[in-house]
Design a protein that fits this description.
14 helices, alpha/beta, about 350 residues, about 45% helix, Rossmann fold, globular, 13 strands, single chain
Amino acid sequence: MSVRTLSVDVAPPYPVHVGAGALERLGEVCEPFGARAVLTDARVEELHGERLAALGAAPRLALEPGEDAKDLGGLGHVLDFLAGAGLDRAGLLVTFGGGVISDLGGLAASLYMRGIAVVHAPTTLLAQVDAAIGGKTAVNLSAGKNLAGTFHQPRAVLCDTALLATLDDDELRSGLGEVVKSALLAGEDDLARLERDAERLLARDAEALAGTVAACVALKARTVAADEREAGPRRALNLGHTFAHAIERAAGFGRVPHGVAVAVGLGLALRLSEAQGRLRDAALPGRLAALLGRLGLPAGLAELRAAYGAALAPVDLERAMRLDKKGRAGRMRPVLLAAPGAPVLDAEVPLEALATVLG
């Protein structure tokens, strides 16, 4: 199976290599830079550390897996590591892990010496289809998810889908939540293909995984190229995230996997779209619920509460939504959906209306 290369056409443009064996291009990608350092997590280091042989003896920092590392303390730890590794402004940070590692490493790279180069080698489905592409970096604050961050585009992304064979089932399903979001935004053809391939993806079919990652990367590359700093069309990529971030905060960061929260958030976004008179495709909520069920994802808050033992009281979710960074005082701007491929970006919704779908 060949590796596909897609381009994210920002300034400067950068390649995203997708497919089994993409990591074999790591040496070529890193060759133009000076000193290198690697940010990873301990589990990825144990499973796949030897895949970074092209970097030789480059210093490595392996964090404990999980969302706990993605805060201001974790950021300071990574910045101290970069300084201790002796990187200068011509240096390069390679991130090798899931979304926590790419978010945290990208932010550290954007700040260290006012910006050094970063290359992402994402190891989870969630990071390959979303977090590692597009240049958004962040850490969590106690007040909310991803509230401190920058835009800092990578120089390249290596989505080696062979790494997905070692994902546990929860991590795979979490990534599939973002895959469903991408399919809803891309349009009917992508949604129908995902419905067709659902069982193959759960079975980790190599061809289905590579094709799905490539489709998601293509959507994100187009969107980021059109709106690098999220002033307009890129906001569509937040479909389901107003609810998802509230779920993650109310449950406690790290308790509900991000992509699982997104899956539930997609269903809530469709309910809100219907309540606001924006949904043109009346069959879409049922279709989404059926697809999420086939992928082993919860389709609503009741299923989520049962699966993760989180209370997720409506009052706590509403309180978390008030801190969403995309809103204004007393009103929210969640992304709604009219039909597959037709996001609605201009809806300002009172918090009271959001709360009606949280029962």
